[in-house]
Amino acid sequence: MNDQSPSNDWPIKAYNNIDFLNSSDARHIRILAELAEPQKRLREMGIENTIVFFGSARIPDSNIARERLAVAEQEAAEGKPGDEALAQRLRVARRHVRAAPFHDKAIELARLLAEWSKTIAEREKRFYICTGGGDGMMRAANHGAYLADMPSVGLGISLPFEPELNPYIPHNLQFEFHYFMIRKYWFSYLAKAMVVTPGGFGTMDELFELMTLIQTHKIEKHMPIVLLGSEFWNDIINFQSFVDWGVISEQDLGLFRIMDDVEEARDWIVEELTTHYLRPVSDDPGV
């Protein structure tokens, strides 16, 4: 005997079933959504080209770094001798003061590139600053574009220690991803140039994955890569050792340039983008 009472409730459509959409069975649907929804928004905004900035979320600008150091020094002076927590805070503050000039350079480089991009008459050919949307170096690049009065993109990701995107990104160009792999796809798909500032594991992951895709010709388009800050990069990675150990070729070192001067970096990126993406292709095979 059927004990169920008759019901007039209409069943929920699958695409309205939140429990299903958030389940492991619908993971592929969520992945597709993170591919399709950004594509629609970026297309509506006419954004086809980006200059991607990678870097640490931890490094503030020079003014904030100095202010935090002053506070840490005062706390250490007034605190109990041997307080390891205060000592650690002081060490971190000193490290950030050392790295903060790179934040300032990232602001300036992004501003210069955005100002140049605004001069491109055809809007669909302009290059938009794009970051991971977070604090630190990402904030710096979005800030630079903001100073140039040009919108920039923030491809954020849901992380417990990055609760919100920085305030320099227009609301309609703020994105929050769940899947790192789809976020990386959007970084690489639209990128025509890349600037990598000092950063940690995440920055290295993004840099080396993109260089691998270029090295293996999975990415065929031309993409100039600037590693900003020779003091940092030469201290962190001995790229020549990869060649000396025979694990990459000499020509692979040409995938990037380590640069310090912001205007020099701007000029090189502009020259590369102009040559490969803006100059008309001649029909004359002899040219």
TrEMBL record:
Gene3D superfamilies: 3.40.50.450. It is an enzyme of class 3 (hydrolase). Its EC number is 3.2.2.4. It comes from Cerasicoccus arenae. It comes from the Bacteria. Coiled coil: none annotated. The lineage of its organism: Bacteria, Pseudomonadati, Verrucomicrobiota, Opitutia, Puniceicoccales. GO terms for molecular function: AMP nucleosidase activity. One of its GO terms (cellular component) is cytosol. It holds the Pfam family Lysine_decarbox. It catalyses: AMP + H2O = D-ribose 5-phosphate + adenine. This is AMP nucleosidase. InterPro entries: LOG_fam, LOG_family_nucleotidases.
